[in-house]
Amino acid sequence: MEICMNETADLEYLEKKYQLSKRLLLDSNPFFENEKIFKGEKIVIPGWGFVQNNPFHPSPSLTKNTYNAVPISWPVIDPKRPYHFFALTSDIKVLKKNYPFIKERIIGRSVLGNPLVELLIGSGTKKVHMNGSFHANEWITTAIMMKWLNEYVRKLILNESINGISVRQLYEQITLSFVPMVNPDGVNLVLAAESFDPQVKEQAVKLNNNCEDFSDWKANIRGVDLNNQFPAFWEIEKERKSPKSPAPRDYPGDYPLSEPEAIAMSELVKQSQFELIVAFHTQGEEIYWGYLNYEPEKSEEIVKEYELLSGYKGIRMIDSHAGFRDWFIKEYRKPGFTVELGRGRNPLPLDQFDEIYRKAKGIFWASLYLLCK
């Protein structure tokens, strides 16, 4: 919420009044330059909102006498719905309005020009990256991630703890990089094909064996599997994958990093010096954590914590190459994980949402607090 100062005050006064850290206040007001806020100046108080004193007798006017300022203790978004790119952009606006310390950055654009959004939360030197919806019909990963994010910022404002560690400590020690939807064109094709230009949709129908049901579509809009695009023995996948041309799934492209979405993710990693990455997929309730013995010893410690918290099964080696996680581990020798959320056949139904959220939320939190120890 935004307030106008009735009198001059310093940051310490606002910290005490609203029970917030100085860091959160500064990150929510990036143009604030002084330790004092003067009478008449406006300042944003993150994670606070106005509620009516008596909701059963609503006042006809919005006045300070009829509304109280309170910390937001409820979710501000509800991502439990078909979660296309339009839903994501709408929810990002809501989150940023209520929690303006969330930074938004466009790291690239999809084939159709949709922005690939990175959300940044935290001010720490250690960097953790998470992403979802590399595959179009795995869009539920984005919805789950956004619920985790809402829960994180809610707990941050309320000064709660996870596993004995203050969430504010996580914020101050770690910067979380969140790319909730790597493949916006593909997700929209699965969930909102009617929104496409007729020529684009016609081409997709041809690639989809002349079928207008895109529920099994995994690739980007050009028919390239984005998680088979990375230079980690890509040539093995190119040789053995059965699609030899663009298809709804599994085609690794004509060469590594041929697609703008894969290029954007590669460049993000190169520029960011992440300590750990987690890519969320569906399905199987498994966690892939090794790659040809390139992974560090620390990876095994982390996956054991993931297993304990989620009930998912950690698997060190699988016969697969050219994935985002494979490439990260091979290039940087740091912990990287692919987490397969839920069970069943993709796309997983929304009636699994609550169970997936409950089981896997520990993986989200552990990815942060393990780096604080």
TrEMBL record:
SMART domains the UniProt entry points to: Zn_pept
The residue ranges crossing the membrane are: none
Q: Which UniProt keywords apply?
A: Hydrolase, Metalloprotease, Protease, Zinc
Recorded superkingdom: Bacteria
The identity of this protein, by name, is: Peptidase M14 domain-containing protein
Q: Which cofactor does it need?
A: Zn(2+)
Recorded source organism is: Aeribacillus pallidus
The Swiss-Prot or TrEMBL record annotates one GO molecular function as: metallocarboxypeptidase activity
